[in-house]
């Protein structure tokens, strides 16, 4: 008996030792790719299955840090359209200008969604989106698609770089200066909006500072403004309060940059960011001990985001069975992931921008400074039916095409006066008609349309209701994508 | 016990453990036989041109182009009068079924649409972020009967607003028939293996339950206005006429963000509103629900008293709101707009906290204690008959 136990223990030890260097295997590779990219097909999964955790993380991280492959709209590089131009406009001119802003904002959303659809490095997009949801600004308030694009470029540049540099850059970002009202933060008339959020949402988290600190930090950021002619950051020396401030127990004639360094020196900052990365990539409930350990790694690397993320992606917790299928796909995960997974051919991406908006994730327009709350908040009766309806329409696109064509020819006879709505609707329907999915070819990746194999790629866990054993072809895809588990990652 | 039964029992236990014990203890039959209908005036309605302070010379001084002329207002008393487009509401006023609450707002008003409606929806202080709606917290404190089709139904739009929150059985739909068609995509609950999945399954369950209990084919003699708002009123009436109850229904009317060319737009919106509310009254009376329904308007904010240079008005603060129903004590409540006491931005002071109005609904209409749902004590108004 003792001998048998001895053999068992030896076996377990050998397995433990081998684990770190062992190849991921199919399911772990699927898990990694689905959490760090939008969705992965069988070929990608197979390729990663042969790698160890470390090799896999290094390969994913090695693909990051390159500029977007989709050219940005031309107007992003043109002369800054100052809000000053509104002065002296007639009501009619102003209306036209507003409409133009709206059109450009939609174009910007389409640009980003396109990049997500075609990028060779989905992790770059995921991290850019992660920071967009951290250093939140919204087009709804900034009202400058040019500045929103510049901010996106900044987040993208630093997405896997250094958090300290990112924080400093974000604080000086013109869209941020507008969004959190620092533009109107002046000596003697402080505006506390940025001061509060930089501590509550960007670095320390709630409860790690007092109201007094907010007032003092606001003073330090007085004068951090923007040049309305160029749209560039501008430090207005005359508006800056250069007196002594006391922040988190330290006193000095701090300016904004000095305050950011004080915030970066607080251990809570690294923990706050790591916990947020955990909720993005691992599970809704960060493990406090692991967060502390990872935060130490983060600080010791002087805030290298790449280092922190790598440590997270090779951790046991990341691969723990209890954390599988515990995250709800964001609207972007669902829309982009599905289109990528099934190699949909699309023309105009506008319908998918609208879908993401309707599902609650309008890019460049998070609901408020806290960003999208995410998790269970993504799903209510409307958004769930909208998610399911979207999936059903995608996989019935062939049946819908004649219906859309008929609706469009009807639409042509509608009266004038509603031209603008019709234009949008027509563009929408045309785009829906352009969608193509070759189900046969996609299923051919699975020998003989093997249902278990399809499920293993598409679902993060066993379905709530398994398709009948003889279900095949498009019907199989439809049933699996309608299963509640398809909403999880 | 097979595996499925076992797991669903575990699921039920998990749900029970996250519901506060007091909520289970207080399974009281709260007065949810009384229905609440919320009408959101999206964009921020101009209270001053809705209920016009027609005897206040400040009003005419601030609005040389936008003011409603004194001889056109529908007088409520010696100082306040309705915009002429609200004529359909005069019948209710005469029957004393319309309460007009003036100067409704909150301290530290936020002038952003998004943030301010969030404050109203969550009943938070202006510098406080709450994740759950005020009705969600009310239903958590005093649950509505399980037999109801849903706790709340949002007609049009996907924002759950005051219903947002983990425990609320809330459904959003635009058209009952269409909802019933779409609902076939939802399957009855399966096995929950973690929090995320159990949430999704519960939402599916809510959809299935609502779909099983709502019908979209009540034949009303009432003629509903042929406008989007009229359609919303029709859908709300269908929901309310369904046999299984709901505790609250929300409808909304868009377009009140009248920064330019306000007079025509606002007149059309108020006409829509008044005709829709009159139709709702008629449909509720047909369904035998007028005596047990309280209708309440709200918006993220009112508009600035001084008109801008585009014949419009910018974002403001306090505004006037309506409560109507068969058991409303009609009349004017709250002080008239304080036009002589504008703040640094030129905005109105508030006198009635919007949470006082919510407390009125929770306590006097539903008979539920309100301090927990509103996270503080607010003074309810003596505005409904028990």
| Shape call of chain A | globular
Radius of gyration of chain B: 21 Å
Structural class of chain A: mainly alpha
The figure for the number of domains of chain B is: 1
Describe the 3D structure:
- The complex is a heterodimer of chains A (489) and B (386).
- Chain A is an all-alpha fold and 489 residues long.
- Chain A folds into four domains: 34 residues, no CATH class; 191 residues, no CATH class; 57 residues; 157 residues, no CATH class.
- Chain A is built from 25 helices and four strands.
- In chain A, the strands form two sheets. Chain A has a two-stranded antiparallel sheet.
- In chain A, helix 11 crosses helix 12.
- Chain B has 386 residues and is of the alpha/beta class.
- Chain B has one domain: Alkaline Phosphatase, subunit A (3-Layer(aba) Sandwich), CATH 3.40.720.
- Chain B is built from 13 helices and twelve strands.
- In chain B, a hairpin with a 4-residue loop joins strand 3 and strand 4.
- In chain B, helix 10 packs parallel to helix 11.
- Classes of the chains: A mainly alpha (489), B alpha/beta (386).
- Chains A and B meet through helix 5 and helix 20 of A and helix 6, strand 7 and helix 9 of B.
Main traits of this protein?
heterodimer, A: about 500 residues, mainly alpha, 4 domains, two-stranded antiparallel ribbon, 25 helices, about 60% helix, B: about 375 residues, alpha/beta, Alkaline Phosphatase, subunit A, 9-stranded mixed β-sheet, 3-stranded antiparallel β-sheet, 13 helices, about 15% strand, disordered N terminus
